[in-house]
Amino acid sequence: MRIKTLTIKAFGKFKDQTLELKPGLNLVYGTNEAGKTTVQTFIQGMFFGFYKPYRKKKTYSEEYEKYMPWGQFDYSGSLVYEVDGREIRLERNFLRAKDSLFIYDNTTGKIINDQFKYDGVIRQHLPLGNLGMTSVIYNNTVNMRQMVHDNESGSQDEIRDSYIEMQNSSGIEINFKGIARRLEEKKSNIGRSGQSKSRIGAAIRERDELQQLLKEAEAAYAKVAENQEKITRNQKMMKRIETENDYLSQESVVKRKKELLQSYEKINKLEKENNRLSKIIREDQIYEDYNYKNLEGLKAISNQADRLSDQMDYIEKEMADASEHLKTIRQKEAAKRSSLAGHTLEAITEDYELFKKEQNEVAAVDKKTNVIINIISALVALLGMGLVGLANMGLLGTSQGIENLSLTVGVTLAIVGVVGLSFGISETLKKRRILKEKQLIPIQEEILAKYQLKDGPSFDSYYKKVVRNQKELEQMQNEGELLIIQHSRHQAGYEVLFEQRRGIMRDLERKLAQYEVKSIAEYAERCEKAQQLEELKIRFNGNLRLLENLLETVNGGKTDDGQSVWQKASPKSEELLSLGKEIARLEGENSALTDGIGLPVEIQETIKSLDAQIQAFDTEIKACNAALEILETIQKNCHLESAPELNKNIGDILETITQHYKGVKIDETMKLKVVDPKGGDFKDAEQLSAGTMDQVHFAFRYGIGEQISREMPFILDEPFVRYDKQRKTQALKLLAELSSTRQVILFTCDDDEENLLRSLKAPFHKIKL
């Protein structure tokens, strides 16, 4: 990816200005307050806007106010960048309440916002969202601002997670952050028992309140039953008094005779009606034991079974989702394995080691050299010929013996030197022949042909890809195991609910069998018939009492000798009034006792349901905690696997710059420590000098940026202010090398960078503000 054009319509001090950037190294020069930092911030704002990260609602950062143009009603610009051969144009309005972002295909002019990820907090699409680049990662890796070392709050975790996911990319949407976030959301959704407003806390609070209400309801209904017995006794007494009053209220014998005649007719009618009622009562006597209290109990049991069924349906859906997700992972595992074309990592590793072994033998032959033997042999030959020459010229003295000895020694040394030189040349030619023969032996060609590769470097790339593929398969297997654990825990919860429901249904079936019915509806029909039976009995008993009263009235109208004994009497109205008041008082007390209080059996069933719900919440929280522990273990293992490579890369960069420090350690939280080359102790970057601290952070951003995103441009604002010349030269050399593969934008106010780049003969494009 590279940035091509910046069009600053109104931003900070700039208005209607355009900058053209080139591939490779762009050196943006400007004096103090020329606007270098403004341009760097404009690039950041075009990609991400000015919003504070980690917020649940849109909140503007301090940079929004800092770079708002003075005395203008415009705050906007555009940026064109190229990625994967496609030109994208961004047009952004920064003004609050009017902020907007339009993303265009710069070739066709079509709006393509919907092709990028959407952020629901700021309600905008993210131009770099598809590259996994957030504002936090951008500002702590590829965008190096002036003299800033502290990471934003929460950025270390985000950089760490992004780096680990990049090293263990499996192509699956679910990653460490996603899984952990969903598990924490599920736990948060359930809450803790001590939180009264959480789901589990509300269930516990409701259960405790119902238990207290159950005690009150049981006491109230016990008092109601006691009052009802009193009401029944008083009603019977009122009936008897009313019957007496009917007799006592007669005023004349004539009226009495008429009443007697009417009583006879009533007696006949009542006897006929009671005979009919007696027959119906005998036939319907089988419904006598059915009542609405038992019906409510049966309905409560059925409702509890229905609630458990709802919970089981929810768990079945969760299990189905987990199974579908597991199926997707298995399909991707199969795709990864199929990419190996039937080869295994072990077989490929064995062939790779064999291939490297042959290459090492060639290198070993290449390292063996006969240069020393050839030099020594030549020196010995020259020394021998020198002695022979001196002896022949008579320069060694007048003694004939000395001359002969020198001549003999000289000839001998010359012969030895010539023989040694011949041997060395012969061995050198032999080694060259061996190297020529060893360039690529048949077994290496066979290995390359086996994997359809053309040379050793391509085999190296293929082997690294296979190793990375194996790591991705292991990660998928770990995710699969997590899903299997979740599925097992859901299965266990489902089985518990299933057993509870089966026990409840058995209890319901037993009660229905006990009541000799097949369903609750049938029991309700029998309750209705039982109520009708009770009404018939009341009517039958009322008729009996009326018959008794009528017979008593008829038989009491005469004495044994036939004399009339009718007399006028006053009704017992005061006693009736007193009994009526007492009945009304008791009924009022019963109404007050049961007002707002449910049936105890219903409360008990609700408490049982809440206990089951609380138990299910506890099981789900334990499952989430277990999954989070496994995720933490996997994350630590991933860091242990990838940390050595990252430490080495950053250490190499730091050594290149400083020519002193080279050992670097990065812990799980992306905290960076430097190894003291003298004592081997760890030092925090903040313990070093200001210049060295700049260089440590430069090395970290350079190294981590290469690992997280090799596509993004590397943007630096005055990074070398506190560098000495030697370290600045090394850093510029690194940036020049980096610019061959990705775009680099370097802001500076000093000519020193330009001069050093020219001395390094490094190509660059200069832009002057």
From TrEMBL:
Residues 1-55 form the YhaN AAA domain. The chain crosses the membrane at residues 371-393, 405-426. Keywords: Coiled coil, Membrane, Transmembrane, Transmembrane helix. Residues 200-234, 260-325 form a coiled coil. It holds the Pfam family AAA_27. It comes from the Bacteria. Signal peptide: none annotated. Gene3D superfamilies: P-loop containing nucleotide triphosphate hydrolases (3.40.50.300). InterPro entries: P-loop_NTPase, YhaN_AAA. This is AAA family ATPase.
